[in-house]
Write a structure and sequence with these properties.
Chain lengths: ~100, ~250
């Protein structure tokens, strides 16, 4: 199914309450190094999931897409760990966290 | 059994605390903890637990000390090159606190390591397969499990008190069938003190559980030493989990 949602800067401030139909994106730790230029907020759509948002990033941010495609990446929606197919609703904060495996 | 005069002096800073006190110290002295992995995390964890008077520690690591370890594995010295990490660690910890018992396994995790009875397991390993093996063991034995990892500037900690809480285990958060990521400490590095932060947090969490102040079953804590940020995440049990799910 083609995705018509685009990632673009939000009209609302990056902090505080998000405007209607917006999702706040957070790339934790070293993922932030790959996410330069990614808008902090995106427009929400009913069928958006973390997997679809990752796919939307692929064209303009291939290095970030590759990092997000690593095994053991964690995703949190409003501080709750979720899966790649979890529906993402407007007003949510969606965070991606890179795998941390060493000891 | 009451504390000896020497123990009163050694552990006086715990005894001064109302929420640890003699009863809490006695719980620590009576506990036996398994630490798997004596690398960057296992060193600070074992140092703090030994100093705190954990009555029994069992250390498991099949590796030997290498020069490249000394940037972060703070128990070892150049005189230890080529020697088993668990053996070197045992000597240092007993020198620090002769009041405790320290047992060792100088091979990788095996059924023999898990044969004795433990009160808590600390995961300081560097691979998902071993973490998941320990997770399954702790869930089956209904004992607490404190797991951490680190890479680059970042660290992660998650702990489970399977004795007090039901479902939700490591496999609900990271599927045991997941592949290993391309990056690890050997090929991309790690900042030594980040391991100290996470190892200290593991030791604190272990003490908290053993003394009786733990209520964060399955909560994930992430630290980014480069930005100084912390993130705390909650997790839900997966009813279909192979380890803790209702089948």
């Amino acid at each position: 199914m083609p995705l018509s949602c685009s990632i673009k800067p939000a009209a609302s401030p990056a902090t505080g309450l998000l405007g209607l139909n917006m999702i706040k994106l957070l790339f934790f730790g070293r993922l932030g190094d790959f996410a330069e230029g990614v808008a902090p907020n995106i427009e929400a759509r009913a069928d958006l999931t973390p997997a679809k948002i990752r796919d939307l990033l692929a064209a303009d941010h291939p290095a970030l897409f590759a990092e997000l495609s690593q095994p053991q990446v964690l995703i949190s929606l409003n501080q709750m760990i979720v899966g790649w197919e979890q529906p993402v609703f407007d007003g949510a904060e969606l965070a991606f966290l890179p795998p941390v495996t060493g000891g | 059994m009451s504390l000896s005069d020497s123990q009163f002096m050694r552990y006086s800073r715990h005894l001064l605390m109302d929420d640890i006190g003699e009863q809490g110290q006695q719980r620590l002295l009576n506990a036996h903890v398994l630490i798997v992995g004596m690398g960057g995390l296992g060193c600070p964890v074992s140092l703090y637990l030994a100093a705190a008077g954990l009555g029994g520690l069992t250390l498991c690591d099949g590796d030997t000390v290498d020069q490249s370890n000394l940037q972060r594995q703070i128990l070892y010295t150049p005189e230890d090159y080529g020697k088993p990490k668990a053996l070197c660690a045992q000597q240092r910890l007993l020198a620090l606190n002769p009041d405790i018992e320290v047992n060792i396994f100088t091979e990788e995790l095996s059924p023999a390591t898990l044969a004795p009875s433990y009160d808590l397991v600390v995961d300081c390993t560097d691979n998902l397969a071993t973490r998941q093996q320990l997770n399954a063991y702790c869930f089956a034995q209904k004992i607490p499990f404190v797991s951490a990892s680190a890479l680059g500037w970042e660290g992660q900690l998650v702990a489970f008190d399977f004795a007090a809480s039901g479902n939700l285990c490591l496999n609900c958060i990271i599927d045991k069938e997941s592949a290993e990521p391309l990056l690890n400490c050997s090929n991309s590095g790690v900042v030594g003190p980040v391991l100290g932060v996470m190892g200290s947090l593991q030791a604190t969490t272990a003490i908290r559980i053993l003394v009786g102040y733990f209520k964060q079953h399955g909560r994930v804590q992430r630290y980014d030493g480069k930005s100084g940020q912390w993130l705390t995440l909650n997790a839900k049990a997966n009813p279909q989990c192979d380890i803790c799910g209702v089948r």
